Amino acid sequence: MAINPDSAVIGVDGGGSRCRLAYAAGDIRHTVETGAANISSDFDGAIKTIKSGLTALAEKADIPADALYACPAHLGLAGMMTEEDGHRAAQASGLIKVTVSGDREITAAGALGNSNGAIVSIGTGSFLARLSDGRATFVGGWGFVLGDEASGAWLGRAALTRTLHVLDGALKATGLTQELLKRFGSGAAIVAFAQTAKPADFAAIGRDVVNALEGHDSLAEVLMDEGVAYILRCLRALDWNPQEPLCLIGGLADAYRDRLPAEAQNALIDPAGSALDGALRLARNHHFAEHG
Fold first, then answer.
1. Quick one: pLDDT at residue 289?
2. 3-class SS at 19?
């Protein structure tokens, strides 16, 4: 298929567990999915994943690889912390006209498009963002070790910590802590689990916290309230006001939705699109900003 590389764009949503790539030209869109693409934890592996995805995308779109590599592209990559990270990834990708950002930027661009407003992204990890007159401001997204408050991984780790407090006699047991202690068998087993567990493993326990809300478990209620308090602090830090749209996304969005104060609930809107949509939007925005 013969194409004009300036009429099409490439978007890449490179996440820590999967990488999605899209080719879009007018009403035509092709999408492929590959493995993890976190440039912080495995730079070489992430680039290999992106390149294999581009090869698959060229085959699916039935265009030559060199034509695909000439299309304006935007990579939104997990693990990008500095501009140098972006420059390095751009050069290694082999794409000719490419811009790079973190995955937070493409998530915000996909959820809100070009509209003002804020997003709260709460899944295995967490971050918040506000778009105002084309400028994006972010809070959080520092990763599981030092951040990701209110997230599934954070909830799971906090539940295990409080379970150890119950064993120490510093807290009263709840149905949730009893269930976790029954599952692990001992405090030593909980500690052993934590030494090798990944954020996704903790997030699975975070889902137990959410499920415990159905029985009005007091610990689950406390942890969710702490998560809500964090979200509200971050929204204040972003100078979000209730007259602006608020988009709640991620695997725990529904769990937090009804726990937000009324003014936040009244501002909630559905996301305009996905992170991959955001990558395509930024590819177009950067290209047309340069070429008119």
1. 59
2. strand
Share of the chain above pLDDT 70, in %: 96
For residue 211, which amino acid is it? N
Residues 94 and 139 in one domain: no
Contact 131, 124 (CB under 8 A): no
User: Nearest Cα to 175, choosing from 133, 138, 209?
Assistant: 209
Confidence of residue 43 (pLDDT cuts 50, 70, 90): confident
Q: Are strands 28-34 and 135-140 parallel, antiparallel or unpaired?
A: unpaired
Measured from the Cβ of residue 84, the count of other Cβ atoms closer than 10 Å reads 9
Which of 31-40, 61-70, 172-181 has the least mean pLDDT?
31-40
Give the CATH number of the domain where residue 187 resides.
3.30.420.40
Same domain, yes or no: 285 and 198? no
Full domain range(s) for residue 47: 5-110+274-291
Query: What is the spatial distance between Cα 274 and Cα 134, in angstroms, rounded to a whole number?
Result: 18
Are residue 158 and residue 198 in the same domain, yes or no?
yes
Domain count, the chain: 2
For position 6, what pLDDT does the model report? 54
Residues 6+ positions from 236 with CB-CB distance below 8 Å: none
pLDDT at 81 over 50: yes
User: CA torsion sign, 235 to 240 to 243 to 249?
Assistant: negative
Does residue 114 register a pLDDT over 90? Answer: no
